[in-house]
Design brief:
Elements lengths: L1 H10 L3 H12 L4 E6 L2 E5 H11 L4 E6 L2 E9 L3 H10 L4 E6 L3 H6 L8 E7 L18 E7 L5 E8 L4 E7 L4 H8 L3 E5 H4 L5 H7 L3 E4 L9 H9 L12 H18 L10 E2 L7 E2 L1 H6 L14 H5 L5 H12 L5 H16 L1 H12 L4 H9 L5 H21 L6 H11 L3 H10 L20 H11 L1 H16 L5 E5 L3 E7 L4 H4 L2 H6 L1 E5 L3 E5 L1 H34 L1 H27 L5 E3 L4 E6 L2 H10 L7 E4 L11 E5 L6 H17 L7 E5 L3 E5 L12 H15 L5 E5 L7 H19 L2 E5 L15 E11 L2 E10 L7 H7 L4 H15 L6 H8 L3 H13 L3 H8 L7 H17 L1
Parallel strand pairs: 1-5, 7-10, 9-12, 10-11, 13-23, 18-22, 21-25, 21-26, 23-24, 24-25
Antiparallel strand pairs: 1-2, 2-4, 3-4, 5-6, 7-8, 8-9, 14-15, 15-17, 16-17, 19-20, 19-22, 26-27
């Protein structure tokens, strides 16, 4: 309907507006940047949206069907800044360029418009511009493929066109959201039928504008092979490996969307590589959010685990660290390989520092390559490749001849594959100072191209060249007063006085060489073939110099694209070295230990610490973090994980203790040293965490309902190798309801899930379960009471807390005195064991809260002469004698009171 309306509107429009409407109709889901001279203009609804989003003035341009046409625009030279804001808000933009010189359109008639076409669709998942990308974050476009059959099959394929990375993995409906959030794409494209399938709506509702429906034919698994062979320029996919139909559907959708958005350009994508199911630690969405792995609950990178442990010095290294953190491994051998690389750099501090100094100068060569391949790059991107090659070989030479672990050996082999002839060509061709845009010229080194040097000399030193010719002609003719001059009519000409004219035309040879142009009263003017040619060359020198440089740029670009696989492999290798050295750096600085990760069910941590909280305490309060042990290893002959039931007061550190053990597991399995003195961890295949309280009002869920949904997911999915972190289950309902649910959940974890678990609770009655459940141990957060106050020791010890100290915490939080005292009275009555029916009698047995509050308020209004006198004193104005007198006076008033 919308398309028909747009076509009808075009029928009565001006030629230019009809063209806009036609192009907009073909791109209905994108804001249309319509090129008009030095501006990109937006019209109609696009203008209204962009005006609000960008904070720019909304104007109008003529009328259409009797109404004003809304319009706004942005300068072409500043378009990237505006694109960044629009893309950040989730918009998609179609960039429509002028495809011819406006002068050509005028030749066709007054009603002709400049030919325009969309050269690119800019979407959140397909940007490559350096200014629009965060160097420390990948920018993934993800496609969801589905094949219906006896059992519905799903798969995900994700591409970062800024680096060429291309992965694919199977998934299932029950873990779809978790798998999507593990990759954290900027854009997820979905077949239209699947997008509107109500069974998948909860997933797409959570993802919001990230999910983008696309035509089903893009995901056709039957035509996927033809699409891929055409894209990669191969005859068959046999060399790519074997993929399921669902995986081919996802791969096809991703490639089709790249073709759709990039038009004629092709990014240098690597071949799709499969992530096998189960190869990475499964972390459900709630756990990922609660543990704040990549971002805090507020969406900030500051305060997250990723930020706390990132010591990388390159953008590619930071992206790889984040990827490893979000997808920890489950293969002990692969984890050990990564840990070996960290250990190597930890033991070789001097070598590590030298390598990091070299790596710090490495540009983002993978992204530079992608921009070049998509015709969005410039001389500085070629320079980035040259600098990257130099640094890569420097790092390789640094490590050459040393006994290094397999992870580093593989990285060095990636660097060794760099094309040395191309690196040498770049070094010969590129100047030391490079412009941003190739059209600016000056990026080819002097001496690289003889003709270019000559054209530059003519362009930049035309006066010197003319003076040299003038000298030579003066010597040849013997006319010392001979001059070469220039005007707008004749151009360059030779001028001699009338007395010297014979030297120019006195002989047949002279006449043949010097061509008469003009006779003046006292002078004669001539030209020569050489001078005419020189004039033409001078006039065309700048254009010719630019043509030569652009041709050299295209040649270098072609070599870069031809070497794309080798360049990408070297970029990946440098990222691996950066991450390994960075993890060694933080391990040394923060006193982390190497974890022992194996196939057992052990979970033994000594001196464990929270990596984020520890840094925050040191930075903000200059206080040390209190380390604690945790042992959830199987006990006795029964091979099943242990459960720790943790009791203790609020603010005692329960949540921190729970989280730190989960984070230690994540860090260990990503291949990092961990904040502990000893860590022995049997591989965790699934990590679940229910920590913190939140609601989901948009989906009609209360805080308690969200808690129960997340708890249900844990109890239904956790297996023997899982690690489960639960905090305060059952607190969102009545006391006995909550206690019953928490009690049953612990029993289920012990008997059915048989997993390793930490369970924090305020229900002290549950500590009795240790007598019934053999693998359950009671531990508590230790506190001390001093003169009515509670001191939190933040230490975990064996045993159970006898109370929660909630009233003391309430007092520390600043609750009104009346509330605190009333709470103490109620608590005393309840703790006497008379809970049966007592709650209903408290109103009669104890002073009503409202009465107590009024009595305190009345007391606070009673005149207090001591207080008034004290407030009237200004200590800075008193002499020592006056201060002593005031003190005696206050003491006397207090005695009278």
């Amino acid at each position: 309907m919308r398309q028909k309306a747009m076509q009808a509107a075009a029928a009565g429009a001006t030629p230019m507006m009809a063209q806009f409407i036609e192009i907009k109709t073909a791109n209905p889901d994108s804001l249309l940047f319509y090129r008009m001279g030095d501006f990109y203009e937006l019209f109609f609804e696009d203008a209204e949206i962009a005006s609000r989003a960008l904070g720019i003035t909304l104007t109008k341009r003529g009328k259409h069907q009797g109404d004003d046409i809304p319009m706004c625009g942005v300068p072409v030279h500043a378009a990237d800044d505006y694109l960044q804001k629009l893309i950040g808000l989730g918009h998609r933009v179609a960039v429509c360029e002028q495809m011819e010189d406006p002068a050509e359109a005028k030749k066709r008639g007054s009603k002709s418009v400049v030919k325009r076409d969309v050269i690119r669709l800019v979407t959140p998942g397909t940007i490559t511009e350096e200014k629009l990308l965060d160097p420390s974050e990948a920018n993934y476009l993800m496609a969801l493929g589905r094949v219906k059959g006896g059992d519905e099959s799903l798969a995900l394929a994700w591409i970062d066109i800024s680096t060429g990375a291309f992965r694919v993995a199977p998934t299932r409906p029950d873990r779809l959201l978790a798998d999507v959030l593990r990759i954290d794409p900027r854009e997820l494209i979905v077949p239209e039928a699947l997008y509107y399938d109500q069974s998948y709506r909860p997933v797409f509702d959570v993802l919001g504008r990230t999910a983008n429906p696309q035509p089903a034919n893009m995901f056709d698994s039957a035509s996927a092979e033809m699409r891929l062979t055409r894209f990669y320029g191969v005859a068959t996919l046999e060399g790519f490996g074997r993929f399921s139909r669902a995986e081919l559907s996802a791969i096809s959708g991703a490639v089709a969307y790249v073709e759709k958005t990039q038009k004629a350009e092709r990014p240098p994508l690597g071949r799709p590589e499969r992530d096998d199911e189960g190869a990475s630690l499964f972390i459900d969405p709630a756990t990922r959010a609660n543990l704040e792995l990549g971002r805090t609950l507020s969406g900030s990178r500051d305060g997250s685990l990723a930020k706390a442990i990132d010591r990388t010095v390159t953008g590619a290294g930071s992206r790889l660290l984040y990827e490893r953190l979000m997808s920890p491994l489950t293969d002990p051998d692969a984890i050990g390989g990564r840990l070996d690389a960290v250990s190597f750099f930890l033991s070789e501090a001097g070598l590590r520092d030298d390598a990091r100094r070299l790596l710090k100068g490495v540009p983002d060569i993978a992204r530079a390559l992608s921009r070049l391949a998509l015709n969005r790059g410039g001389p500085r991107d070629l320079g980035a490749l040259a600098s990257g090659f130099e640094a890569a070989h420097g790092v390789a030479e640094l490590l050459q001849g040393r006994e290094v672990p397999a992870e580093i050996v593989r990285a060095l082999s990636g660097i060794a594959g760099l094309p040395m002839d191309f690196a040498a060509h770049l070094d010969r061709a590129l100047s030391d100072e490079l412009p941003l845009l190739k059209r600016d010229g000056g990026f080819i080194r002097a001496g690289y191209n003889e003709e270019l040097d000559e054209m530059r000399a003519l362009r930049d030193q035309s006066r010197r060249v003319i003076a040299e010719m003038e000298r030579q002609l003066s010597e040849e003719t013997g006319v010392k007063s001979l001059k070469i001059r220039h005007n707008n009519v004749l151009g360059y000409y030779i001028e001699v006085t009338a007395n010297n004219a014979a030297a120019m035309n006195g002989t047949d040879e002279a006449k043949a060489r010097f061509i008469h142009r003009q006779t003046m009263a006292n002078a004669m003017r001539f030209t020569t073939t050489e001078l005419a040619e020189l004039e033409t060359r001078i006039a065309n020198a700048a254009d010719r110099a630019q043509q030569i440089e652009l041709a050299a740029f295209e040649k270098l670009l072609g070599e870069a694209v031809a070497a794309a696989d080798a360049i990408r492999a070297a970029a990946d290798a440098l990222a691996v070295l950066d991450v390994s050295a960075a993890l060694a750096t933080i391990a040394e600085a923060e006193d982390y230990c190497r974890p022992q990760v194996d196939d057992s069910l052990e979970f033994h941590i000594e001196g464990g610490r929270h990596p984020v909280v520890e840094q925050a305490l040191r930075r903000q309060l200059a206080e040390p973090f209190v380390a604690n042990d945790c042992d959830l290893s199987p006990t006795g002959e029964e091979q099943a994980g242990a459960i720790w039931l943790l009791t203790g007061p609020n603010m005692g550190g329960k949540s921190t203790f729970l989280r730190q053990n989960a984070l230690i597991a994540v860090m260990a399995q990503m291949g990092s040293f961990v904040p502990a003195s000893v860590a022995r961890i049997g591989v965790v295949d699934r990590l679940f965490s229910r920590v913190g309280a939140s609601d989901d009002l948009a989906r009609g869920r209360s805080t308690f309902m969200v808690e129960m949904v997340e708890t249900a997911a844990i109890l239904n999915q956790a297996g023997p190798r899982a690690l489960v972190i639960l905090d305060e289950i059952g607190r969102g309902t009545a006391t006995f309801d909550g206690l019953s649910i928490a009690w049953a959940a612990v029993e289920y974890l012990h008997e059915q899930n048989r997993c390793r678990a930490l369970f924090a609770t305020h229900f002290h009655e549950m500590t009795a379960l240790s007598e019934k459940l053999g693998r359950l141990s009671n531990v508590t957060m230790r506190v001390k009471e001093f003169e009515g106050d509670v001191v939190f020791l933040h230490e975990v010890g064996r045993g159970a807390a006898d109370r929660s100290y909630g009233v003391q915490v309430a007092r520390l939080a600043g609750l009104p005195h009346a509330v605190v005292e009333r709470a103490r009275e109620v608590l005393q009555q309840l703790e006497e064991g008379e809970t049966s029916g007592k709650a209903s009698k408290l109103i009669d047995d104890l002073p009503l809260f409202s009465v107590a509050a009024k009595q305190e308020a009345k007391a606070s209004k009673t005149p207090d002469r001591v207080g008034e006198e004290l407030l009237a004193i200004n200590p800075d104005d008193l002499t020592p004698r006056e201060a002593l007198d005031a003190l005696y006076r206050l003491k006397q008033l207090a005695a009278q009171k």
